[in-house]
Write a sequence for this structure.
């Protein structure tokens, strides 16, 4: 498959390396970063064989699905860098709307998934690393374009199953352009207030009962919002709990397991 950057990404001087097959685009990006690459650089493939998500969970990506990672140098600290994931979610949602023609409604699930009708369509993994020139981020995005995994503890879906006839290169070109726009709006964390408002407008589960699992600890309540640092705010009995990390469950989509 022939991958190419979109016009906005090219104008912003992004570069691209594509692969017929790759173990993990995030692992490849980190290796290149440690070897001196500073970006902005996209790595993309339609066949990833050893991808992973948060907590090293396997991300299954058969031929035809999209796996891609972008390397960016950041002008911010580690805490603010964590909010880049919200800009990534908005870029992905915008690209998916572009290729689908608004045929379906995409919702963003805190902290790093994209859902359709409660089923996982895509995942995002941000990994930050210090370099001699400052903090860098590799932002990995995986999308079920032609197939979704079946043996998972949570429902998953593909674009093909939704009747959206696109392919990985077409989606990638749209994503590279959307990323250039949303990364600029995020502005190394300085634009997170606007990003936060846009993300909440597209978020799954706001105002609904929610359960967050942190190992043996379980937090239950209502998903109120995300705060100025991107942390989940859960309210119960008039008291609010702020959550920095955890597995989120709400509605039928997550009753069987964490996404």
């Amino acid at each position: 498959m022939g991958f190419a950057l979109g016009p906005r990404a090219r104008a912003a001087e992004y570069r691209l390396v594509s692969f017929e097959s790759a173990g993990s685009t995030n692992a490849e990006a980190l290796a290149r970063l440690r070897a001196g690459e500073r970006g902005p650089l996209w790595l993309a493939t339609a066949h990833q064989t050893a991808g992973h998500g948060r907590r090293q969970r396997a991300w299954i990506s058969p031929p035809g699905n999209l796996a891609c990672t972008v390397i960016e140098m950041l002008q911010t600290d580690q805490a603010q860098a964590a909010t880049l994931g919200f800009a990534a979610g908005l870029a992905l949602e915008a690209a998916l709307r572009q290729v689908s023609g608004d045929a379906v409604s995409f919702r963003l699930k805190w902290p790093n998934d994209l859902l359709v009708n409660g089923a996982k369509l895509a995942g995002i993994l941000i990994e930050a690393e210090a370099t001699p020139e400052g903090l860098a981020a590799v932002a990995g995005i995986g999308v079920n374009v032609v197939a979704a995994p079946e043996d998972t503890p949570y429902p998953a879906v593909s674009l093909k199953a939704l009747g959206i006839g696109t392919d990985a290169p077409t989606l990638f070109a749209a994503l590279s352009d959307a990323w250039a726009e949303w990364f600029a709006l995020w502005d190394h964390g300085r634009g997170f207030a606007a990003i936060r408002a846009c993300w909440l407008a597209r978020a799954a589960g706001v105002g609904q009962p929610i359960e967050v699992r942190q190992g043996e600890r379980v937090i239950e309540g209502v998903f109120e919002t995300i705060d100025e640092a991107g942390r989940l705010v859960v309210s119960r009995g008039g008291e609010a709990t702020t959550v920095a990390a955890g597995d989120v469950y709400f509605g039928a989509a997550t009753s069987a397991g964490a996404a």
About this structure: DSSP finds six helices and 14 strands in the chain. Residues 252-259 have pLDDT under 50 and may be disordered. The CA atoms of residues 209 and 247 lie 14 Å apart. The two ends are 29 Å apart (CA to CA).
